[in-house]
Amino acid sequence: MFTAENWPIACKINFGPTDDDGTPIGSAPVGTWEEQLLQVAELGFRHIDPMDDWIPIADLSEPRYREFRALLERLGLGVAAISIGRNSVVDRDQGARNLATIHRTIDRAADLGATIVNIGFQQALAPEQKTALWFWLAPGHVDDPALRPLAIERVRDLADHAQRVGVQISLEMYEDTYCGTPEDAVAFWRDVDHSAVGLNPDIGNLIRLHRPMPDYRTMYDAVLPYANYWHIKNYLRDEDPATGAYFSAPVPLEYGVVDYRTVIRRALRLGYAGPFMTEHYGSDWLGVGARNAEYIRSVLRGARTVIDARRNGTASRSDRAAAIA
Fold this sequence. Notes:
Order of helices and strands: EHEHEEHEHHEHEHHEEEHEHHH
Oligomer: single chain
Strand content: 5-15%
Number of strands: 11
Distance between the termini: 25 Å
Radius of gyration: 19 Å
CATH superfamily: Divalent-metal-dependent TIM barrel enzymes
Strand order of the largest sheet: 3-2-1-11-8
Structural class: alpha/beta
Helix content: 40-55%
Number of domains: 1
């Protein structure tokens, strides 16, 4: 069980997939990687999530991978988890290739000391999403119910591999996918039925949508008992029932519609013990992420009695039992 000070809170590396001159970051000199990661380390992060839309870890050659690992060691950065973005294992054209990529990611995640490989079923942005102010404001991919059994089969395959090397799979919540609502996510998790699989309760992906949405407390209560990794972010949200108009925008954790002080404490009482990953879109994403990381630690410090009780084996199991029931 972690303390507030050593709990892994990872920075989502969001510098983009190319260097200033258009060179893919995976092919860029180590100096480019170092210049970017130094910014992360200087803001106090001790862990990262090198999501595949930055450096595709699975596709690095062995010499380049060794350079990456050595750089992390030199900068004192650990890898809490590796997230896979828009590479669904049931993509009609690339699903088999994506499955193989995630298998390679699992092996490298284990080698880097990560405990989680995060996957989802979101797919490439639609043209309308690429030109929208915020991509989530335009319609995107919708999962085909006919492919759900294949999705379950392939997640189990990944989970078997992950379990062998001491890693867990986390399923990211994302609109219009098999994990697109709390009810869908829990149903999919139950159908996968594997001890190395949990949920990523990324309710932020839903709160930002311009559509009717349940209260965030209800949504979190449904999924937190099954969570093993957490992409955590917050948004302003407003609804006008008279006109049907919606508004949303990303903000630091303490300023949005979700009261994360209450939600994180609730998660701890339910047994949450996974890493966090700070995620923010727009503005100074790295500075906001660092601010969010310190906010999370402040909440964890305030919840130290809950954490200490769990470390001592005296925490009540009533909340978790009631939620799962």
